[in-house]
Structure formats: C-alpha cells, structure tokens
Specification:
268 residues, mainly beta, Immunoglobulin-like, 8-stranded antiparallel β-barrel, 5-stranded mixed sheet, 17 strands, globular
Length: 268
C-alpha cells in the first residue's frame, strides 16, 4: 500500500491553525455590547437621585471669569439658576419652581423674578434610565424627589453688601494691613462698579478695576473696557454677616510674573 506523504504537510498545518481560530473569551470586554461574553444588561443603571443646587451667576456682562455660587437668597429683578447634581443615568428631570404651574424639563433651569419678593419652593423629580423590560432597578429606585427653598428680597439697607471700604491683609502676609473700596460711579444712575486699593489698576482708566456685582459677590470685567489692566482677575464675596470680605485676585507684575493673592478684610 502506497502512502501519499504529500498530505502530511496539510494535516500538520491544519493542526497548527485550527486552534488559533477558536474565539478568545477576552476578545470583547464591553459590558454594554450584547455580543461580548461579559455583557451586563444592567450595566450603568443607577438609582434616581434628585439632589440639586440653587445658584446665582455672574457669567454674563463680559466678566473675566464665569462664576456661579450656591445661594439661599437673590435680589428681586434678578435670575436664579438651578442645576441637578446627578446627571448620568437620569432619563428625565421635572422641575416645579415657586407658584409657576408649568413643569420644566432638563438638568438645568433658570428663571427671572421680576417685581417679586418672598420665599420660593423648588421641587425636582428625576426618573432613572432602566433597561427595556424594566428589570434592573427596584421600583423605589426608579424615581426620586427633593425639595429646597430660597428667598427673593429687596436690597438690604445700604444697598449691596459688597459696597464699602474693607480693611484687612493679604493671606500670604498677615502683617500687610491695607484697605480696598468697592463703589459705584455714574450718579444718579450707577452704571459702573469698581474696586480700588489693590496693587494693580487699569492704566489710562478710572482709579480702580471694573467689576460686575451680584448679591454679595463680584467679578472683574476688565476685558470689555479696552484698558491695560495687566491681565487682572478679581473675584470677591462678602459673607453672610455682610461685613467679611474674601477677595481673590491675580495680575501680571512689571517683570511679567503672574501674582496670585487672597485678601481677607472687615467692613469699616
């Protein structure tokens, strides 16, 4: 019997190649992909969370840095902003704000309060994303509700608490006692607000740095006035006591170095 040895190389190659065609269990590791061995239909499904923040913002008006702070009070004829803190895994957001009967949808909202003073109640209801058959989340995990309130008020006596003279020190040098003043200019209609007393000002401009003020805080607006302000950036906030000022500022010195400082002062 003759043996055809020409088949042997083919058999050997098949023995070597066939095992390599077997699919590796690690070829795909995306738990969202139904074709993957580790596919998890409940991956990424999280319980609904309805926590949110109430904000006052100074992002408009050509400010040098967008600023939004958590507040419990705004002044009348201004805008309040609302931001849901949990956004991933939420399918729907439903807001009810004050006495407005409308339901607002989406993770962020803003509403102006013209000619109104008083307390405002805010409700947020969130609905979590579940899989198609609704089997990943428990019934009490699919929705959540939270409430907060804030106050809309007239300016306090004396106007915005940011205005006035504050005496204090640089945090880096507690012995560096000096004063800064925040004031309005353009009577009888206050058009511009300024801060003076810092070691930097705007060349060729008024005696100070332009700022935009909100209730108890302000941000510099040097970029829209065309003066050389040495890239100054100023942010200040007066605390709840209406007397303590925390001030953060930065500018380029004469050598081009960036100077960053904090100031803490008390209203005179």
């Amino acid at each position: 019997m003759r043996i055809n040895f020409s088949f042997f190389p083919l058999i050997f190659m098949a023995a070597v190649l066939l095992p390599s065609c077997k699919k590796d269990d690690n070829w795909c590791t995306n738990p969202r992909n139904p074709a993957c061995p580790n596919y998890d239909p409940c991956f990424g499904r999280v319980p609904a969370v309805s926590a949110f923040e109430i904000l006052d913002s100074a992002y408009i008006g050509g400010v040098d840095s967008a600023v939004a702070i958590i507040v419990d009070t705004i002044v009348t004829n201004s805008t309040a902003y609302f931001r849901a803190t949990q956004r991933e895994g939420i399918e729907r957001f439903e807001w009810q704000i004050g006495n407005d009967p409308r339901i607002f949808e989406g993770p962020d909202q803003d509403i102006a309060f013209y000619d109104y003073t008083g307390d405002v109640n805010v409700r947020l209801v969130t609905f979590a994303k579940d899989n198609e058959d609704g089997s990943c989340l428990q019934p009490d995990e699919k929705t959540d509700t939270s409430y907060q309130s804030f106050t809309v008020r007239e300016w306090p006596e004396g106007g915005n608490p940011i205005f006035g003279t504050f005496t204090g020190y640089k945090v880096s040098r507690p012995d560096s006692l000096f004063s800064v003043e925040i004031f309005g200019f353009g009577e009888p209609f206050i058009v511009y607000h300024f801060i003076k007393g810092l070691p930097v000002t705007c060349e060729g401009g008024p005696p100070g740095i332009f700022v935009q003020s909100q209730y108890r805080f302000f941000v510099s607006t040097t970029s829209i006035h065309g003066y050389n302000c040495h890239n100054a950036l100023v942010y200040g906030q007066v605390l709840d006591d209406h007397r303590t000022l925390h001030l953060y500022y930065a500018y380029d010195d004469a050598e081009g170095n960036r100077v960053r400082e904090r100031f803490v002062g008390m209203k005179d």
